[in-house]
Amino acid sequence: MVDMPKYGLLLVVLCLALLSSSGQSDISIEKSPFSDSSNSPEDQLRSDLWSKARLILGYVSTDMSLEAAQASMLASIYMGASGAVAEAFHWAHATAVKCETMARLQAKRDTISGGFRRLYWMSFIYECDFISEISIVSPSGIARYEDKIPYPAFTAENHPISPDSSEARSQEELVAFQITTNSAIRRFLNTVNSVVYDDKEQFRTRRLNYASWLLRISEDLWSHHSAIYRNLPEFLLSNPSQDVPMTGADTSSPASLQSPTARIQGIPIGNNSWNILRIKGRYYAGQYIIHRPFIEFIVLNIDNFESHPCKDAVLKRSRSCLDGCTGFIKHLYYDCHPDGGDDLSDI
């Protein structure tokens, strides 16, 4: 008897492996995204595998096993790497719905498996990222369990396949650290949204002291957001080719001892380009989210804004919002075109 969730998981993993080996998942923005290689045997094989994987994923759509949820999570990642944003969002939301149901049961247990911890937080990150940009469905409710599901443990689980592989264990520790870091950033951005954009708090916009309140709260939020990024380990924002040391030459130095990854030995130097893009992107997204209300304030008070006592401070914060937008676009474009590429207007 075939275990369908595991079979579906295997098919999606094979799709990701073929996409990665083809080089088509490399970060680039081309004028002609559809190349002649679409009819190659490798692409045809990948297309056939994905067609079969979709059938299996549909068959196990009501299955609440860990493998079924892992398969749909990887399907979202695969579709995102392939450039199919809408379908990537579909599978991310489907995974979050599964995780919400599973979290309800897991939260009642004394111990929660490392596999589910990683899946939960990956799903949390992806759904929140999509919801913040494409609000076409109601959230799954997965965020209700963010205080009950622990972050992934930094001690790797033993696997029967390679129990003595120190490199594999180190890689698992690194993955756990990456998930934890990105989850913490995403949770903070969710907090910003709930504080500044809560529909129930819209009465604040009609108060005379709204601008003063907004200036005070945005200062606190931006200070916290900036502090998060100032304390990120250097390797998270560095490409492996940059050869950046993780802990410094002197392992007894304060910087080494304070590094969250100082205890992880033998892990690769630098970070994957997609991971770097996501981390940097969230920095600029946070800058935009925190300061956007100031632009809205100007638009809603355009008739009286010239005489407003907080005019200069509001304009300064509005500039920060625009800097976040331009920073996001320029960072995405120039990281994709390290040689300078074509003119930015070609995007």
UniProtKB/TrEMBL annotation:
Keyword annotations: Signal
Protein name as annotated: 3-oxoacyl-reductase
Keyword check for 4Fe-4S: no
Record's signal peptide: 1-23
Naturally occurring in which organism (per UniProt): Gibberella subglutinans (Fusarium subglutinans)
Cross-referenced InterPro entries: EcdB-like_regulator (IPR053181)
